[in-house]
């Protein structure tokens, strides 16, 4: 490997002692401690639930057929432990992530129990044993997580981020890193130094985010490659902007990325979303039907001559128009219904009919959509998926249509059931997702 000045790379290997390896070992050790505590909590919870349940007969089954009883316990424990790793949700960074992890794990236990019961598995935990075990599991995991965060207050470690060069997104990205409640240690931005190895010795960054050089030929590719092999992560500004701010930088977006499907939803993800959005939409429609009926009756009584629904022609999937259903908000009890935030409940019919999804870009009026498509490049691409009742841009608090587009493109690129679940939980809880 050559160095920047053309001499063999071995003569110019870094002589610094960056604390990257020790930091990595420390992180891995703490992650193993967290995982070990989780395993102990889960392995203890379900046997406790099975033996402490007053209405269950697990103790008798265990005496009569211990192998089958242990197999039933093992199925519940395995489901709870494996789901976070299979789905990628294995959080130790925040309570929000922890709640999501525990919810997925315990939900998987009930789904597995239902499946095994359907196929006639000989021995299973009954519903009271599973409920009690899940409750004990949630308590133990919460207590353990609280104790873990007391022991390791600096987990996960704050990455040191060095911005080098110049890029139009550095100002916004640097502001976000600096204001991220101590999640990052921001270094720079600085111009490309004459000796980037010496700069790495001085700052000891975990990540180096690279912008453009101030003059042609100043980009130190070989020196950065040396740092990459030393353990420093090297990112270009657009990729890091997307990773940290969870938005696609439209300043760096080129048609070729869209042309070859780099920013496009996977077909299987779209198909899965259509199925679970329809099923959950039906369930939500059934649960909210009393509110829908009462609201409709109240509106008609308060304003009998006014249409029940407010006309709203919106742009749907691929820009195809559809009638977005909303209660009238300008007459009779309409303002009160709007304040109660139930004016959009009829949109559940749009979800069931396949015109909308539970999660997706904000549905705009067709005239606004057409105008924004002419004003903002790539704006039409946000409707490569169905519009939703809520979305990534809404839960992140997008301030304008251009920023909203960047969030929507990120959502389209990363569309998945887990991502939708994250957004829905944040929407219901009324907090920021991510």
Identify the notable features of this structure and list them briefly:
about 55% helix; disordered N terminus; four-stranded parallel sheet; Rossmann fold; 8 strands; about 425 residues; two-stranded antiparallel sheet; 3 domains
Model description:
- The chain is of the alpha/beta class and 434 residues long.
- The chain folds into three domains: 132 residues, no CATH class; 88 residues, Rossmann fold, CATH 3.40.50; 163 residues, no CATH class.
- 56% of the residues lie in helices and 7% in strands.
- The chain is built from 17 helices and eight strands.
- The strands form three sheets. A four-stranded parallel beta sheet has the order 2-1-3-4, with helices on both faces. A two-stranded antiparallel sheet has the order 5-6.
- Strand 7, helix 14 and strand 8 form a beta-alpha-beta unit.
- The longest helix has 36 residues.
- It is flat and about 75 Å long.
- The two termini are 40 Å apart.
Quick overview of this protein structure:
The protein is α/β, with parallel strands linked by helices. The chain is built from 17 helices and eight strands.
Strand order of the largest sheet: 2-1-3-4
Measured by DSSP, the beta-strand proportion falls in: 5-15%
Number of DSSP strand runs: 8
Structural class by secondary-structure content: alpha/beta
The dominant shape is flat
The description of the largest β-sheet is:
4 strands, parallel
SSE pattern:
HHHHHEHEHEHEHHHEEHHEHEHHH
Radius of gyration: 27 Å
Low-confidence stretches: 1-20
Average pLDDT taken over every residue = 83
Number of domain modules = 3
Count of individual helical segments:
17
- Give the distance, in angstroms, between the N- and C-terminal Cα atoms: 40 Å
Summarize the amount of helix as a percent range. 55-70%
